[in-house]
Amino acid sequence: MARHRLAVAPLRRRFETEAPAELPRVAALVAAERPADPMHCLRPRLIAATARRFLAAFPGEVMYAVKCNPEPRVLRALWAGGVRQFDCASPAEVGLVRQMFGADAEIRYMHPIKARPAIRDAYRLHGVRDFSLDSADELAKILEEARSRRGVAQALGLHVRLALPKGEAVYDLSGKFGAPADEAAALLAAARPHAERLGLCFHVGSQTMGPQAYRDALALAGRVIARSGVTVDVIDVGGGFPVSYPGLVPAALDDFVAAIREGVAALGLPGIRLWAEPGRALVAAGVSVVVQVHHRRGNALYINDGIYGSLSDAGVPGFRFPARLIRAQASAVLEGFELFGPTCDSADRMRGPFLLPDDVREGDYIEIGQLGAYGGALRTAFNGFDRAHLVDVGDPPLLQTPGHPAA
Hints:
alpha/beta
């Protein structure tokens, strides 16, 4: 008999009900429990506050990109912060959001290439009406699969994904999805007769450091819309909104919002709806992981989490993360360390450098921050090192992003 293992599922977690009035601090939990497995420390109040701040700043509709972190407690914290719209990219994500929030959640399926059963189930079982696409084949697929019993797809939102040139984002996303300008214009014209809402969407790249990227993308979007010769109802500026990492401090959120306002105003499209799909900007600061040092070899620390766990971005992508030693008495002299994960794979290496007291030793605990974005989502069970749990804490973030809440 076949069995299925769900990837979009929560870590083992402590708090199954509403968080108490006073949340524990990370250092107190470590002192009391001396955890042998990585401990993911979730800051639900910070996540909720960050969501409220983003919703208040953005001049349009905000849908959370579920792929960034599908942990149910994260989703509940975002809901508490006012998020009611979700960008889903798989049947599992669609099902999770619908199961958690019912019909009160608005789900938009913004993956440009989808399996036929995924479209059919999203439309018929989960009430999803908005879909993205970047080819004539995908448009035909959506129209064929999203049909009512009367044989007509009703109330559809069709959103053409526009390809952008490679930009300055830390993670370039220009190579996989998106129709070139001429094709995007033709797709808009082809989709218009079938769409209750016709949209043009794009993504400037993950962790985009400069607001100008949105001005440039919106200018291109305006030219595509003009070339299409049809009325467009929605422009979706995607994600890409950045957060701070060591040595990587972006412009303030308000600067990005101002650039988007200016870019939209320059298009001269009265009544256009504006959407965004933030992920990292909403949740990165809201989760950290506490790891234990198993061995020190010079400036290398061997710890119980790594690139096959929650520290994938610290591997080949080379992200640096804020770190602190959880010990009452430690050296005031900081030193740069590289980290090795617990697996037997030599690629399980995080060069950092991670700045820590120079007397760090075996048995010490280290908290690594800014891991709410993709840290939990990219975990694997490789080599059997898949044990971890999640706790709610009341600590502030390890690193502040300009324009984001501090706690």
